[in-house]
Amino acid sequence: ATPMSVMVGVGKAAEAGVLIRNGEALQTASKITAMILDKTGTITLGAPKVTNIHLINGSDDEDEVLQLAASLEAGSEHPLALSIVESAAERGLMPEKVENFAAISGHGVEGVVGDLSLLFGNEKLMHDKNITVDAAAVEIAQQMAAEAKTPMYFVIDGSLAAVIAVADPIKEDSISAIKRLQQNGIRVVMLTGDNRATAAAVAKKVGITEFFAEVLPEDKAKKVAELQKQNETVGMTGDGINDAPALALADVGFAIGTGTDVAIESADITLMRGSLHGLADAIAVSKATLRNIK
Ligand code: ADP
Ligand code: MG
């Protein structure tokens, strides 16, 4: 490509809110055959809200449970944590001091509040910590997941106290943006650390048939490599710290402009408007640029 045509292409893309960091990425974008989309914060808004607090035997005070959960999550920066803290604040519940706090990446959080030891997270975390989750609680969580919500288990002193679910709305134009990619003949794959049932429900809503769920943060890049081994030219789109290695490994990495700095620095292209339509826009500019060269 001539430097001139690339400059024109970069300018055109910028008008559409698509910031291209290097000319090579602009040229590779037109060759993308598979696009991996992170779920939380990429397809969805990344601003989950608490929708259900289902108390389990023993606990009968919803506010008390929510206050404890919020006290624990006050130490975490995860979007799920923020939703719990906000929901408690809306009810006027003030977080208490947490000690021995630990975030367990891709699983949840633990800590001590007062004389209670607390644990909050997914099924994997319950399994790893040997917490008994009876069939009824699993069924409640599965019901929530089938509604595209993310269920989490809250444990006080080793016993399950509640199943708390949050819902993260899908960006209003994600469905049409994904359809545009598919109409370009691109294989669209969703990637998430969230549980399988929730992932399946979200994928279905946005018209994606292929997805990887329950992927640990350190394994996201492996999914990019897997598709590359299938001879795909892989685009990866994400917003989180978790996504950074995958963004760097992909043939073209796209960061959501409202995402974390680490994601933006690891990507080749930034979608300033947060909309996934920036992907098809970038690919269209890339194709036009290459046509001008020939
Ligand atoms: P994502 O790819 O959706 O950003 P993560 O890998 O960060 O997912 O987390 C995967 C799962 O681990 C979450 O869906 C949740 O069940 C659990 N989890 C992670 N962090 C927390 C937290 N701070 N509180 C409760 N659960 C958490
Ligand atoms: Mg994300």
Automatic annotation (TrEMBL):
Top-rank taxon, per record: Bacteria
Cell location: Cell membrane
Family recorded in the similarity comment: Belongs to the cation transport ATPase (P-type) (TC 3.A.3) family. Type IB subfamily.
UniProt name for this protein: Copper-exporting P-type ATPase
Positions spanned in the full protein: 403 to 696 of 756
